[in-house]
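<derive_structure_tokens>
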Amino acid sequence: MDSPSKHLCMFLIFHTLAVLAGLVWGNQETIWTLSRGALTAQPSPRIVALAKPKKDFSKHQCSSGWETMIWERPPLVDFGFPSDRLLKLSEPKKCQAAYLQQRPRQSPEWPVSPAALSYKASPRILELARPKVLHPEFLMDREVPTQVTTVAVLARASSRLQCLAEPRVRKVTCCYERGFPESVIRPVSKFAQEAIASPRTLELARAKRLHPDYVPLRDAEWPVTKAAKHAVATPRLVELAQPCKRPPMGSVQFNPDAFTVKEAAKKATCSARIQELARPIKH
């Protein structure tokens, strides 16, 4: 028996025992009843040592009762001195002597020459230096709180304004009041109820006819004829009706005749072309 089948049989056995014992999966009850010796047994010191839970050093509890994830610093952290290696690495990078000799100035501020200080700008430069002028019709943004005049605050609306200020009442035409079950959904006028349809309207109201060669769908349950019930299958039908036989997985993975040479292969003669192809490649 392979491993999956063995596990399936063991699961079915345990499941059957649990059903017969009246147990429910997920509770704290054991499947097998414990003996009196197991209940009164005293554990050894080794078992007691192994049964202790592992300490959780990632959490510390404060005096207030709240748990914190902040670790306490060792007392020597505040009084530690950096090593010589850290002091050497913390020094700023020094500039090379060749760069200090070739750089044009000592200060990061650019020096301004006396000619640039006493230079007089041309009319073209003065024209380009002027800021862009706004459009003559440009209006500045109004302030957000609009100042309401006293006249507008003390004004009283006329009856015409009050009539125009009322919301427009629209009649709902998509829904109708609920009436009797036998009544129509939409109201039908009296003239429409007494109207007489014309021959053209009666012709258009006729349902579309099916094609003369139309065959309706057969029922889901087909009636079996008497001849089909007493029919005898031929040997060919019996042969085709047999299920396909597949070899078991064990014999497929392990073939004992894998290295068996057939008799026809033993008596075969190689052709000249096969002998030529069978020769090793010479380098």
